[in-house]
UniProtKB/TrEMBL annotation:
Region (Disordered): 57-124
Biased composition (Basic and acidic residues): 109-124
Protein name: Uncharacterized protein
Originating organism: Candidatus Roizmanbacteria bacterium GW2011_GWA2_35_19
Superkingdom, taxonomy of origin: Bacteria
Amino acid sequence: MIYKGFEFSRSLNGDDIVYIARNPVGLVIYRAKSESDLKKVIDNAIEERRRREEQVAQNLQAQERSKNKRRGFAAKKKEEVIAQQPIETTTATPKIHRDSTGKFVSQSQKKEDIKKSFWDQLRS
């Protein structure tokens, strides 16, 4: 039997017969001892869902009204635009190339003194 989009069926739970309501996907949503109790549960759930939707709609309308009230009292602010010439803040990027070992090296790294390794210090 189908009632308000839910399919009713009976199920044995031990020695007890339990009535279940499944949604269109086939998942069990409600269980009750009798078919009339199951109908009451479904009616109550649908009524509760309707009340929640109405409450949400009322809350949204109240928020919109409060926003409109705030907009009506707020003074319009006009900001003056100050025109300035742009200042160049970027610097030229150093050229990067590969050295003989295949590593990337920039020209600024070439100019710096290369630190000697432990073995180079021993040789000199």
